[in-house]
Amino acid sequence: MQAKDLLQLAEQFGNPLYVYDAEKIQSQYNRLTKAFSKVDKLRVNYAMKALSNVAILQLIKEMGAGLDTVSIQEVELGLHAGYAPEKIFYTPNGVSLEEIEEVNAMGVQINIDNLSILEQFGTKHPNVPVCIRINPHVMAGGNTNISVGHIDSKFGISIHQLPHLLRIVENTKMNIVGIHMHTGSDILDIEVFLYAAEILFDVAKKFKNLEFLDFGSGFKVPYKKDDIETDIEELGKKLSKRFNAFCTEYGKELTLIFEPGKFLVSEAGFFLAKVNVVKQTTSTVFAGIDSGFNHLIRPMFYGSQHHIENISHPKGKERFYSVVGYICETDTFANNRRISEIKEGDILCFRNAGAYCFSMASNYNSRYKPAEVLWLNGEGHLIRARETFEDLLKNQLPLPTAITTV
To answer: Which residues of this protein are catalytic (predicted)?
Structure first.
């Protein structure tokens, strides 16, 4: 997308605003499937927690992907978006047996990540096809909050508990059809990923009726010019060869599953915000925008960097700015960042705003959530309306008139 397109959308739909480029999502999907084209049975399940707008789900469905979900509400959104139950994969963490049984009744694939629920579910439903999430105890990810495969992680069943796991499966006669792992997000070293894959292969050998292996995702995308990223093509070449060899060894052609979220939608997203004030202090020049961590929390929560451009004056002289929000907390998007000279009223564009941005937004300070727009075939399509005061009041109930204050 061009700056002029983004400015036009900001004028048309207001600020702050999320914009998603459909063509970029498609190209990322094609890149991943091409990298693993040597695998006969490949399935991509979009990790919808990254961006769960129904229009985005429908767009990705048309590409041929399934869904990776982590809650019953995400399953319901997937069904609402038109996904067949068998195209939805459910991988919760720390949920009740009741929720898992309710999702199972919807006909989606269940993935269980702890021994307690595994035994309870297997005892009651031994014939239901179940996937098991293991924890390979491999440290991977760009931040401790998104590294989920290490020994202290709450996710997955430890490989050291494999004897216990096998005993539960034997006692319940469960139908185990898949093995799953997810080491974390922002994986750079594909050798670490391949090492974890070998652990998954070793576990898979213990089960005789598997239909698929799910390798999760966590591929690193670039956040700035010349930034490093996961080499998908090299990973595809090496893992495809190893996976095909394992299938021959196993004696059955299995399906290889990935569940990318950020990889598909991060670079497709743009967040637009207007500069309310340029504030010079004794040491810093602040650019205060009409947004805050209620709309984009990743820089504060993960320490992530989003490239920021002044699309109103992209060729202006560069100066150093600290870009901050309007929330009554310290919500700093960037410290001393070189940006083309900023004036009040300018539109700033935050790149890589497609993943875990709107989906982690809140109404903190009673601010409205922004609108979302899909850029498709050279046009902007509103796919979520901006919230209003009525949205803030929805589901709230006034104090009963019978109650008297003291």
So the answer is: 328
